[in-house]
């Protein structure tokens, strides 16, 4: 019976080992898992949502196939959604039951070509197909946008692959338990096959070497009852060198040794089996606590707080594009070349300069704009539009560093330069409010922890330039000194004309960002109008060549209004500070001259 049990244990053990090995070889799961989506859609945009990339923390491959050329662009999830807006689009939302899930949203059948948008951290043009290894550009949630040219259907044949969970926790447990069962079975088989030799004093039936008497003759066994009734005194005395038979209920030393040996062999395998079972349970539980890759936590629902809306690589690309547009336009004196990258008063100033230079080739050209190196930057963290970015650059043709203010009006527009101001002597560019170069926007009409609201600060500078007001609240600067001196000289030197100055703030041009000390930087345009009217009836006011080029006449008897744009970049101290309002950078440009 014991031998049959040992054989069964060995068979079960070998089966367990084979099963464990099969789980690691024949039945092993594939190394990579995949999910696909294919559908016929006429939508001009396809968006792969952040949830798709959460299927694995480190390695996700995206494969796209299409009938022709298409664009793959990567941007923040909120920016991609904002760009798509009301357009018809296909959204790939996640993976369920091994399938890539998608939904189609109805909307506008055509959108602008998304290629070249400043919202994209990176983009790639492909022909027919593309293989992309997904790497999140930074913190927060990111999406992929697929499109042809904005009018043709976007690709919808998408496959996502990732490393599969190839762990087989039961395999090791089966191999270990199987090996222990085989060892136990072998041990039991060895014990069951050992001969069971009789003891020296055994008088059981069939033993012909029973007790001997003193004469050494063979004793004849009597009735069993008589034999059992004998006492020690009735047993014949044998030779001194012969062992006496064992007493009932006792064991000889040899028999005791054999019995003890058998008991120890039976106990040790039993303990080993319990240990193996415990070990197997421990292995299974340990493996079971490891979550598979696809069970990773889902991405956060919103963009990381404080993330700048433009990354360093984007800002470099934007500045290259802005500087190239300005340079080309300045050389050609063609304002049309400015349109994609220059706006607001900065565009108006250069348009006026091109007009003046067309009439007067000796008129000075505007200060060039350098793309880099970028010495410092401030990037808004506001997800709303318009968005503001500030960069400080210093090129070979720039005598001093420039503060470049860029604004993006809406998701489908690119950043445009709204101002390029030269930093004044003795000024320092303020520190941004976060280590990641992101800084929140500041309300324009509220103090919000500031000494003055952004609107009030620019208005104070305008009034100071007009009349010297707020002199004790604004730090001394060369721009204010020069403007006030020029205005006084104009009034004194033109006896035949009455000259007056009037300034107003273009509130639509204002933007403000928080600084590290709790203050803010403020950018804005001040509209400065210099009015010259003849002091006496019939008198004539002569116009300079620059004014004449814009006014169309070189003199007037009625008067003329000459308009300048004065771009200012200010630092507003935090509330409770004893510091003054600081003028960090300025730029002045002629805009128009109109006869009265």
Number of helices: 11
Which shape, going by the Cα principal axes?
Answer: elongated
**C-alpha termini separation:** 125 Å
Please list the strands of the largest sheet in the order they lie side by side: 13-9-10-11-12-19-18-15-14
What is the SS-derived class? Answer: alpha+beta
Total beta strands: 19
- The pLDDT mean sits at 81
Describe this protein's structure.
The protein has 596 residues and is an alpha+beta fold. Helix content is 29%, strand content 27%. It has eleven helices and 19 strands. It has a nine-stranded mixed β-sheet. Strands 1, 2, 3, 4, 5, 6, 7 and 8 form an eight-stranded mixed β-sheet that branches. Strand 11 and strand 12 form a beta hairpin. It is elongated. The protein starts with a helix and ends with a strand. About 18% of the residues have low confidence.
Architecture blueprint of SSEs:
Blueprint: H1 2-24, E1 32-37, E2 45-48, H2 50-53, E3 60-76, H3 77-84, E4 89-96, E5 99-105, E6 122-134, E7 142-147, E8 157-163, H4 169-192, H5 224-229, H6 253-288, H7 312-332, H8 344-359, E9 374-380, E10 387-393, E11 402-408, E12 416-423, E13 438-439, H9 454-467, H10 478-493, E14 497-514, E15 520-534, E16 541-542, H11 545-551, E17 555-556, E18 560-572, E19 582-595
Parallel strand pairs: 2-4, 9-13
Antiparallel strand pairs: 1-8, 2-7, 3-6, 3-7, 3-8, 4-5, 9-10, 10-11, 11-12, 12-19, 14-15, 15-18, 16-17, 18-19
């Amino acid at each position: 019976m014991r031998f049959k049990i040992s054989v069964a244990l060995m068979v079960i053990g070998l089966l367990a080992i084979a099963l464990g090995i099969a789980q690691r070889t024949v039945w092993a799961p594939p190394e990579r898992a995949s999910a696909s989506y294919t559908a016929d859609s006429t939508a001009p945009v396809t968006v792969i949502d952040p949830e798709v990339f959460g299927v694995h923390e480190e390695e996700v491959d995206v494969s796209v196939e299409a009938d022709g050329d298409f664009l793959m662009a990567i941007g923040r999830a909120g920016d991609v959604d904002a760009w798509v807006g009301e357009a018809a689009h296909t959204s790939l939302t996640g993976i369920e039951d091994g399938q890539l899930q998608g939904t189609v949203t109805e909307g506008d059948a055509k959108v602008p070509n998304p290629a070249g948008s400043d919202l994209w951290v990176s983009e790639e043009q492909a022909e027919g197909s593309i293989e992309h290894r997904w790497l999140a550009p930074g913190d927060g949630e990111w999406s992929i946008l697929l499109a042809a040219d904005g009018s043709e259907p976007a690709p919808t044949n998408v496959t996502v692959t990732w490393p599969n969970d190839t762990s087989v926790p039961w395999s090791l447990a089966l191999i270990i338990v199987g090996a222990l069962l085989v060892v136990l079975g072998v041990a039991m088989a060895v014990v069951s096959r050992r001969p069971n030799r009789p003891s020296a004093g055994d008088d059981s039936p069939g033993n012909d070497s029973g007790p001997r008497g003193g004469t050494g003759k063979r004793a004849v066994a009597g009735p069993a009852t008589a034999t059992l009734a004998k006492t020690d005194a009735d047993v014949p005395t044998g030779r001194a060198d012969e062992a006496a038979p064992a007493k009932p209920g006792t064991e000889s030393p040899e028999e005791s040794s054999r019995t003890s040996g058998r008991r120890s062999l039976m106990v040790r395998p039993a303990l080993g089996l319990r240990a193996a079972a415990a070990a197997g349970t421990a292995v299974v539980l340990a493996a079971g606590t490891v979550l598979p890759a696809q069970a990773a936590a889902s991405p956060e629902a919103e963009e990381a707080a404080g993330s700048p809306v433009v990354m360093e690589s984007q800002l470099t690309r934007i500045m290259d594009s802005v500087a190239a547009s300005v340079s080309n336009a300045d050389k050609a004196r063609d304002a049309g070349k400015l349109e994609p990258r220059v706006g607001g008063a900065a565009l108006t100033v250069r348009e006026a300069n091109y007009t003046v230079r067309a009439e007067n080739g000796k008129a000075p050209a505007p200060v060039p704009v350098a793309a880099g190196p970028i010495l410092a930057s401030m990037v808004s963290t506001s997800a709303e539009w318009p968005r503001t970015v500030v960069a400080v650059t210093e090129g070979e043709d720039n005598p001093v560093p420039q503060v470049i203010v860029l604004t993006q009006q809406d998701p489908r527009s690119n950043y445009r330069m709204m101002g390029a101001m030269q930093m004044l002597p003795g000024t320092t560019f303020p520190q941004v409010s976060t280590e990641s170069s992101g800084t929140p926007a500041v309300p324009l009409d509220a103090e919000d922890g500031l000494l003055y609201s952004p609107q009030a600060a620019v208005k104070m500078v305008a009034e100071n330039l007009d009349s010297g007001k707020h002199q004790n609240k604004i730090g001394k600067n060369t721009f204010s000194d020069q403007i006030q001196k020029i205005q006084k000289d104009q009034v004194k030197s033109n006896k035949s004309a009455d000259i007056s100055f009037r300034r107003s703030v273009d509130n639509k041009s204002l933007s403000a960002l928080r600084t590290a000390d709790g203050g803010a930087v403020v950018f804005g345009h001040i509209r400065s109008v210099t009015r010259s009217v003849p002091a006496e009836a019939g008198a004539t006011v002569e116009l300079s060549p620059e004014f004449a080029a814009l006014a169309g006449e070189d003199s007037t008897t009625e008067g003329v209004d000459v308009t300048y744009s004065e771009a200012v970049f200010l630092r507003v101290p935090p509330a409770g500070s004893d510091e003054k309002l600081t003028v960090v950078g300025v730029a002045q440009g002629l805009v128009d001259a109109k006869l009265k």
